[in-house]
Amino acid sequence: MKPSMLDYVNETKSAIIGIVENSDALCSGFAKQFAAKKYKRVLLPSSGTSNNACVTAKYFMEKMLKVPVTPVTAYSFAHYEEILGTDDLVVAVTQEGESTNTIDSIKKANELGLDNYVVTENLDNTCTKLAQHKVTIDCGREYMGPKTKGYTATVLTLYMMSLEAARAIGNISEKEYADYKKRVAAVINNLDVVIKNTLTWFDDNKEDLSKCDRCYVLSYGANVGTAVEGALKSLETVRDIFFAFETEEFLHGPLASLKPNIYTVFISPKSYGYERANTLFKILNSQTEHSYSIGAQQGAESKHILDGGFIDDDDFSTLEYCVPMQLFAYLLYTAKGIDLEVRNYPRTKDALPTKAN
């Protein structure tokens, strides 16, 4: 029987804890090269879920590496980026390693003589044959289009690459290094609690959530990437209208489009921006029946709030807040009875292939 999204979400904890435990072995080559070459910028060409992982990982990578880290869609990198130099490091990210645009990005890096890596789950794919160096997303195969554990594992792998490099450079002490690893392991080990509480939250709200076909997903900081990935998961599965915004950008225009039949989902860890998110949630919750929160909302009581037992780590909340959005997509599309094998416009995929194999 083919595994479901729920199966892969449930596998996430056991699949990714080894990335933390074995980060030295998985990322040592990258760390040593980064320390030796003293790069001035890291570019992350990628597509789809991999690109969302890069957007999520950007801020922690910059914090560790002390250089600009630029996520860029693989197509744009391959065909539009012109301001590139030998001080740049290209790190292409692709879970399956067969994205045609990511392949073109690596080819461009090679043609320009730029040092490059591919971060990928499978070490025997087209991208690994082209890239100079490789880092494994060590989470096992995921035989579904909408990726869940692979997304979380990709974010974590990028975190561990930058953490190991920061240690090699001397940007962090051994004590700080050990503390980061202890904290991230604690977040991962808490995922069972998050999953359990999310399932209860959805069940408590199933009657209303099952009607959701238009939704804004909102957050701040690194969790903007979480929101974008969460919206993508629902776009891929529920196949209705889901948009993600940084909360501040939502206030600059999109707020005016809210109507009684449009849902909002806040991703609200208690970090920078929380007070404004909290204020916005409470004022919307007082005016609409369809405002939901993943994360506690101080001063508000509603069964729409998922107070999921989150750790709310300042650096690693992205690894736990992505899981409710993955489950939200799975539970919503199954509640609606949608068959993922049936496409509305199936010939489009054949006309515009995005995978080499």
Explain this structure.
The chain contains 15 helices and 10 strands. It has 357 residues and is α/β, with parallel strands linked by helices. It has 2 domains: 5-189, Glucose-6-phosphate isomerase like protein, domain 1 (Rossmann fold, 3-Layer(aba) Sandwich); 192-335, Glucose-6-phosphate isomerase like protein, domain 1 (Rossmann fold), CATH 3.40.50.10490. It is globular. The two termini are 23 Å apart. The mean pLDDT is 96.
Our count of helices gives 15
Tell me the CATH architecture of the largest domain.
3-Layer(aba) Sandwich
Q: What is the C-level CATH assignment of the largest domain?
A: Alpha Beta
Strand order of the largest sheet: 2-1-3-4-5
Q: What is the helix content?
A: 40-55%
Write the CATH fold name of the largest domain.
Rossmann fold
Strand % is 5-15%
Helix-strand blueprint:
Layout: H1 5-21, H2 23-37, E1 41-46, H3 48-65, E2 69-73, H4 74-79, E3 88-93, H5 100-111, E4 116-120, H6 126-130, E5 133-136, H7 149-169, H8 174-189, H9 191-204, H10 206-209, E6 214-219, H11 223-237, E7 241-246, H12 247-251, E8 263-267, H13 274-285, E9 291-294, E10 305-306, H14 318-335, H15 347-351
Observed structural traits:
357 residues; 5-stranded parallel sheet; 10 strands; 2 domains; globular; alpha/beta
Short description:
With 357 residues, the protein is of the alpha/beta class.
